Amino acid sequence: MNITLRLEQPSDYSETEYVTREAFWNHYSPGCYEHYLLHIMRDCPSFVPELDIIAECDGKIVGNAVCLKAVIKADNGNDYEVLSLGPISVLPEYQRKGIGGKLIEQTKDIARKMGFRAILLCGDPDYYLRQGFIPAETLGIRTADNMYMTALHVCELYDNALADAKGRYFEDTIYEIDETAATAFDKNFPHKELVTGTPMQRRFGELSAMIRKA
To answer: How far apart are CA 61 and CA 184, in angstroms?
Structure first.
């Protein structure tokens, strides 16, 4: 299988949104909103076009990763610019083939060269700990509402990049999805059935509950 990575172009937008919908449908919850999120992210001031990467297999788009600028408001009073990674998507039939890992490594590489300190995301430790991330709590990084969250992970892009950045992580407000708008946007795609109670949905529910006060 020949996988190539390149920057997304405007002509790719519809296909990439389809890939994202397929990747997330019924994954964390019945249906998904990630394709709508991707659609509106590209016009967000925090969007980093240099980190809008797609994976192709024989000319077919099979994966995508995007980033937004975010900030850690440190306890020492300083603000540290970082990146939020996601959504990161791979078509279901191409998952477990290392494509997600390739997208993450390419993202790290480019972000490092651009001078970013670190990448943060919320995801399953079973996967992201194998991709070079560590629990954000390890570095004293909490959510915006000052909670330690098991699903929150960080990857420093150079040694001690966040050595003084113990504090609260604020991602862009665009992640606060307007569900009505997302549902309307989804009507542009072929109908898909909603499924409730999948093992991954239960796993996501468990991870979401793993929070505690700092």
So the answer is: 24
Predicted TM-score (pTM) of this structure: 0.95
Element (H, E) at 200: helix 199-209
Q: Where are the beta strands (DSSP E) in 44-186?
A: 53-57, 60-74, 79-90, 118-122, 134-135, 141-142, 147-149, 152-156, 167-170
Reading phi first (left if > 0) and then psi (alpha if -120 to 50, else beta), residue 140 is in: left
Write the secondary structure of 100-129 as one string of H (helix), E (strand) and C (coil).
Answer: HHHHHHHHHHHHHHHCCCEEEEECCHHHHH
Residue type at 62 in one-letter notation: V
Show the domains of the chain with their CATH numbers: 3-172+198-213 (3.40.630.30)
What tens digit of pLDDT does each residue of 80-129 get?
999 999 999 999 999 999 999 999 999 999 999 999 999 999 999 999 99
Tokens of 122: 């919320």
What DSSP letter does each residue of 14-54 carry, written as one string?
Answer: HHHHHHHHHHHTTTSSSS--HHHHHHHHTTSTTB-GGG-EE
